[in-house]
């Protein structure tokens, strides 16, 4: 069974399912993309690991990692192994040093855990062949959307528009760095990781400007 290594390319709100998110995985040595719809909690858990944000309290996937380390089990890789009736299935490949074993998992949980262990994410050709999207197809669709947008008024956009949403007003460039630091601490305390990531990015941008 030939495995195809994947990398996380993006995470965004799903336009087709309210309250869900689209996780975009890309073929590491190819031009195919594998979109998977995941829940809000799993999306948050994946996002804060990607953004290197440390929550005040461990999330479920952090707890899994702590438990595994205590019993001397490590994760070797994540495999999106099957697609049945539109539902993805995956396995977390683990080892206790003597034996290797698989744990059945939803892809979203498997990826959130795999990120915490820093292991590669794979799929198989049967899954990629059925659900993968070729990059050139995405480019054609994007070009088509841009052409459609030119025929519409600027204020006629909606949630399905291909135009990027306006950047959030907060944090504003008028807010001081000290105030942003306080806002970051408050967002982490409230476990508002989405806002925390935006504030962190603003702080990083300012620090980069100063250097």
Automatic annotation (TrEMBL):
InterPro entries: BFN_sf, Bi_nuclease_dom, UVR_dom. Residues 140-211 are annotated as: Disordered. Residues 140-158 have a biased composition (Acidic residues). It comes from the Bacteria. Gene3D superfamilies: Bifunctional nuclease domain. Residues 188-211 have a biased composition (Basic and acidic residues). PROSITE patterns: BFN. Residues 3-135 form the BFN domain. This is Bifunctional nuclease family protein.
């Amino acid at each position: 069974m030939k495995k195809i290594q994947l990398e996380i390319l993006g995470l965004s709100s799903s336009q087709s399912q309210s309250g869900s998110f689209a996780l975009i995985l890309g073929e590491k040595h190819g031009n195919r993309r594998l979109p998977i719809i995941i829940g809000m909690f799993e999306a948050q858990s994946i996002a804060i690991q990607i953004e290197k944000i440390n929550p005040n309290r461990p999330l479920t996937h952090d707890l899994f990692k702590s438990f595994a380390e205590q019993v001397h089990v490590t994760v070797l890789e994540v495999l999106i192994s099957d697609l049945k009736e539109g539902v993805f299935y995956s396995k977390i490949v683990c080892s206790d040093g003597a034996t290797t074993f698989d744990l059945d998992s939803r892809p979203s949980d498997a990826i959130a855990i795999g990120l915490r262990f820093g292991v590669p994410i794979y799929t198989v050709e049967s899954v990629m062949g059925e659900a993968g999207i070729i990059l050139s197809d995405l480019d054609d669709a994007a070009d088509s959307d841009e052409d459609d947008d030119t025929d519409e008024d600027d204020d006629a956009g909606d949630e399905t528009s291909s135009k990027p949403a306006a950047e959030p007003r907060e944090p504003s460039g008028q807010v001081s760095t000290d105030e942003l630091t306080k806002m970051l601490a408050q967002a982490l305390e409230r476990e508002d990781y989405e806002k925390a990531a935006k504030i962190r990015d603003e702080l990083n941008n300012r620090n980069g400007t100063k250097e």
